[in-house]
């Protein structure tokens, strides 16, 4: 029998919590800024954001990579005075961000500030591990965004809220941590791949539950579920029917948000107009560049994120949303490209409902292609054992409308990608074109 043990907090960490509390005014500043509506006129909205460019000018002056790059382009940070000027500045690709991890940060390595910087290793939504430099406020910023979302959804932030992060990744990492930036809440990370996760989740009794579509899929199959105030989903495409089922099961709204390891939260899906993803202005600025979403972080950080190419596709629009919110939204968002397989009866089946199967297996990468009516091709990299995976996949496909699916397994060294982001599910061209 497992007994809940109190988490022993080392003295040094307790001291750190006091230090984190010192950042509370900045958390409140972020919440207030995010909750302030932009002017209804776009020119006025852009003018309202322009003073934040001062942050970028300062960041570029402190960043060796930015100074070198600007020099090579015959530019100076002073050339950035308006959001229109920003379009004349160089972009930063994901690979470059990784290569320049040491030259990009904007700080004096000898300073006290530099000692408070952490390198976070994350699996990222693209599956490739990435190391991102964060300062203390970067690690707290998500709590400011969460406070803003609660405000936007007219939900109260409880005192000492219980927050759970339900994770379906194969690593099985679990921990608890105090949240001085969120009314002294307690965060419990629970892994669905360890033993008795449901018991721990019910024991944690979260009021706020973070997970991803794989985690929610797991939760839907359980005999019992917690009853949070709000559930939050990110990292992968959340199929509308899964979202509806989760809302019904948990008895609370599910907020879907767009975030990357490198930038933090970028936008959130409007609860009333699901094709609109509201950009988190004034702290984030999103441009579209030949259909690609390019993100600039308009807030202080040791890591300048300026014109960062996400590899995600969508359009940015200004206007009033059906929910009444005025500002910038991403529409036609293809960061997590939807994919419908064509069932033998001609119906469409959302391929992403299969994503959870792959999360439980330690694959470096995979791609499932529907090649004919009942034929699929599964490319995998880095799986030792695939019998169980194939078995689960065949059963799931049978459940989705393929009584006798044929899955051909291909072990490959690389998966050729068309864009910057992986495309784990796709339908072969010939089948797509079929009436
Ligand atoms: Zn809206």
What key attributes describe this structure?
435 residues; alpha/beta; Rossmann fold; GMP Synthetase, Chain A, domain 3; 10-stranded mixed beta sheet; 21 strands; 30% helix; disordered N terminus; binds zinc ion
Can you walk me through this structure?
- The protein has 435 residues and is of the alpha/beta class.
- It has two domains: 11-331, Rossmann fold; 340-433, 2-Layer Sandwich (GMP Synthetase, Chain A, domain 3).
- Helix content is 30%, strand content 26%.
- Helix 2 crosses helix 9 and helix 11 packs across helix 12 (240-250).
- It is globular and about 65 Å long.
- Zinc ion binds at residues 270, 272-273, 276, 278, 321-323, 325.
Bound molecules: zinc ion
Number of domains: 2
Give the mean pLDDT.
86
Give me the CATH superfamily of the largest domain: ANL, N-terminal domain
Number of helices: 15
The CATH topology of the largest domain is Rossmann fold
- What is the percent of helical residues? 25-40%
Amino-to-carboxy terminus distance? 57 Å
Largest beta sheet: what is the strand line-up?
4-5-3-6-7-8-9-10-15-14
- Which structural category do the helix and sheet elements fall into? alpha/beta
Low-confidence stretches: 1-12
Strand percent estimate? 25-35%
The level 1 CATH classification of the largest domain is Alpha Beta
- Strand elements, count: 21
Radius of gyration: 22 Å
Main sheet characteristics: 10 strands, mixed
CATH hierarchy: architecture of the largest domain:
3-Layer(aba) Sandwich
Tell me, briefly, the overall form. globular
* Quaternary: single chain
């Amino acid at each position: 029998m497992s007994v809940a043990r109190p988490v022993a907090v080392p003295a040094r960490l307790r001291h750190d919590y006091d230090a984190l509390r010192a950042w509370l005014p900045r958390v409140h500043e972020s919440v207030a800024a995010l909750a302030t509506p932009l002017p209804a006129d776009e020119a006025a909205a852009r003018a309202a954001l322009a003073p934040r460019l001062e942050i970028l000018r300062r960041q570029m002056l402190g960043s060796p990579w930015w100074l070198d790059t600007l020099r090579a382009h015959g530019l100076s940070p002073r050339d950035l005075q308006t959001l229109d000027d920003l379009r004349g500045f160089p972009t930063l690709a994901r690979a470059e961000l990784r290569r320049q991890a040491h030259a990009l940060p904007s700080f004096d390595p000898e300073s006290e500030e530099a000692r408070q910087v952490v390198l976070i290793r994350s699996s990222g939504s693209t599956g490739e591990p990435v190391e991102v430099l964060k300062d203390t406020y970067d690690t707290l910023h998500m709590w400011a965004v969460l406070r803003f979302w609660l405000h936007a959804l007219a939900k109260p932030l409880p005192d000492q809220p219980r927050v759970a992060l339900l994770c379906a990744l194969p690593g099985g990492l679990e921990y608890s941590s105090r949240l001085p930036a969120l009314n002294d809440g307690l965060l419990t990370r629970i892994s669905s791949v360890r033993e008795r996760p449901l018991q721990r989740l019910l024991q944690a009794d979260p009021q706020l539950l973070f997970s991803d579509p794989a985690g929610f899929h797991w939760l839907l199959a359980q005999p019992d579920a917690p009853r949070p105030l709000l559930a939050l989903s990110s990292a992968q495409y959340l199929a509308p029917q899964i979202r509806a089922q989760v809302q019904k099961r948990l008895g609370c709204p599910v907020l879907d948000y767009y975030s990357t390891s490198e930038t933090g939260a970028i936008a959130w899906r409007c609860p009333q107009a699901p094709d609109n993803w509201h950009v988190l202005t004034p702290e984030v600025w999103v441009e579209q560049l030949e259909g690609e979403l390019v993100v600039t972080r308009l807030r202080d950080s040791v890591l300048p994120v300026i014109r960062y190419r996400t590899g995600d596709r969508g359009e940015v629009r200004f206007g009033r949303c059906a929910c009444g919110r005025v500002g910038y939204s991403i529409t036609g968002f293809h960061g997590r490209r939807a994919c419908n397989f064509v069932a033998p009866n001609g119906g469409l089946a959302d391929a992403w409902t299969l994503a959870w199967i792959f999360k439980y297996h330690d694959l470096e990468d995979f791609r499932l292609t529907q090649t004919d009516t009942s034929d699929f091709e599964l490319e995998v990299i880095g799986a030792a054992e695939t019998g169980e995976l194939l078995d689960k996949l065949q059963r799931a496909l049978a459940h989705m409308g393929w009584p006798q699916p044929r899955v051909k397994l291909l072990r490959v060294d690389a998966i050729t990608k068309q864009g910057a982001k992986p495309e784990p599910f796709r339908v072969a061209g010939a089948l797509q074109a079929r009436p």
